């Protein structure tokens, strides 16, 4: 039963009436109520008596992604099993298995991107995978076709933008951003993606936290290489600027200029940090005198 579309008292009473009948075959009748948090309070109350004293042949499975919305009187009468999101690596490996079984050629980076977009849901990953295979030329899943079909910005752009920022090249950063906009991507999505990229670079600054990076080995090597060239102070300050820009993006009257100003500030960060370091050294020398 889908509680999202059958959430009234009458729907619940109808279910309770069905529970009374013993199964014609087998020992148990199993009732699965999906999206149970969508039931109204009145529907929950109508269900409570049956849940308190269920018939011996009835088993209820209440499925939800928002457990906190279920009233306490219902929760207290249930055994609770929490299921975690499936890891990107596990989804990617399962897609590799399916590809081999179905004779589909694939690029590992493409499968990992599908796994990332699925956000821990294997069903969503399989739906996306099926879509990519259907629209691809031949039975092949390539990274380029995947980012085109899913309208995802190639992470190579973030590497290019970061390189230009570290070299303090405002013009190059603005030209890359213009190219991204011409491809039909939203400025806000770019800003969020750049923040995630900077976060991933910061993670790569420490060998112990590199495991938090959910990318392929090839991409991981690029992240580690760029992280080595990026000062920690730059990454931290850049993340702070991007976060503030993300919060104020919706209220900006000129959203393109809003992102461009962020890129200009980021491009001048290395210079500002070096000046601050020099000023700090001068202050220490004066104190020592």
Automatic annotation (TrEMBL):
Gene Ontology CC terms: DNA polymerase III complex
Function: DNA polymerase III is a complex, multichain enzyme responsible for most of the replicative synthesis in bacteria. This DNA polymerase also exhibits 3' to 5' exonuclease activity.
Domain DNA polymerase III subunit gamma/tau helical lid: 91-137
Highest taxon of source: Bacteria
Keywords carried by this UniProt record: ATP-binding, DNA replication, DNA-directed DNA polymerase, Metal-binding, Nucleotide-binding, Nucleotidyltransferase, Transferase, Zinc
GO MF: ATP binding; DNA binding; DNA-directed DNA polymerase activity; metal ion binding
Segments forming domain DNA polymerase III gamma subunit: 153-268
Family: Belongs to the DnaX/STICHEL family.
Subunit structure: DNA polymerase III contains a core (composed of alpha, epsilon and theta chains) that associates with a tau subunit. This core dimerizes to form the POLIII' complex. PolIII' associates with the gamma complex (composed of gamma, delta, delta', psi and chi chains) and with the beta chain to form the complete DNA polymerase III complex.
Gene that encodes the chain: dnaX
SUPFAM superfamilies on file: P-loop containing nucleoside triphosphate hydrolases, post-AAA+ oligomerization domain-like
Catalytic activity, EC: 2.7.7.7
NCBIfam families xrefs: dnaX_nterm (TIGR02397)
Name of the protein in its database record: DNA polymerase III subunit gamma/tau
Any GO BP: DNA-templated DNA replication
Catalysis performed (reactions): DNA(n) + a 2'-deoxyribonucleoside 5'-triphosphate = DNA(n+1) + diphosphate
């Amino acid at each position: 039963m889908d509680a999202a579309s059958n959430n009234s008292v009458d729907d619940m009473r109808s279910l309770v009436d069905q529970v009374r009948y013993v199964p014609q075959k087998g020992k148990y009748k199993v009732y699965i109520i999906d999206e149970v948090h969508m039931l109204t309070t009145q529907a929950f109350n109508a269900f409570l008596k049956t849940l308190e004293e269920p018939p011996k042949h009835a088993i209820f499975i209440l499925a939800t992604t928002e457990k906190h919305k279920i009233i306490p009187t219902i929760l207290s009468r249930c055994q609770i099993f929490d299921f975690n999101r499936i890891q990107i690596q596990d989804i990617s490996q399962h897609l590799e298995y399916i590809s081999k079984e179905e004779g589909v050629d694939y690029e590992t980076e493409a499968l990992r991107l599908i796994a990332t977009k699925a956000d821990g849901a294997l069903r969503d990953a399989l739906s996306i995978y099926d879509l990519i295979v259907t629209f691809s030329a031949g039975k092949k899943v390539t990274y380029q076709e995947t980012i085109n079909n899913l309208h995802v910005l190639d992470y190579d752009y973030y590497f290019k933008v970061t390189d230009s920022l570290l070299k303090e090249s405002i013009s190059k950063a603005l030209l890359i951003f213009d190219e991204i906009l011409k491809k039909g991507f939203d400025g806000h999505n770019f800003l969020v993606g750049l923040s995630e990229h900077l976060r991933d670079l910061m993670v790569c600054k420490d060998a112990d936290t590199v495991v938090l990076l959910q990318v392929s080995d090839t991409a991981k090597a690029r992240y580690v290489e760029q992280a080595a060239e990026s000062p920690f102070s730059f990454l931290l300050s850049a993340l702070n600027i991007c976060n503030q820009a993300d919060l104020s993006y919706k209220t900006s009257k000129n959203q393109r200029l809003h992102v461009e100003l962020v890129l200009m500030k980021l491009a001048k960060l290395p210079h500002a940090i070096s000046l601050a370091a020099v000023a700090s050294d001068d202050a220490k020398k004066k104190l020592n005198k």
